[in-house]
Amino acid sequence: MTSAYNGFDIESFEAGKGLWHARIKRADQEPVVIDGLPFAALEVGFAWPAPEDAIAHAKSHIDRFKARYFGASHAAV
Questions:
Q1: Which run of H or of E encompasses 63?
Q2: Closest residue by Cα to residue 19 from 43, 50, 41
Q3: Which pTM value belongs to this model?
């Protein structure tokens, strides 16, 4: 299951039977840069019971850290 959200693409994936995680990538295909280190994608969250739960958690994660991932100049994107 994939979802677009606020400048990011979120993909949920089953990491084990009934254990869902989310992968976040920037929609513009640029790397996410954290403390000067580029990442093609971030895998976030806990093992959720459903893909929708993993995506909801990823959206919350994006909302908390968006300025850090895009840089302050892009925080309003």
A1: helix 51-70
A2: 50
A3: 0.79
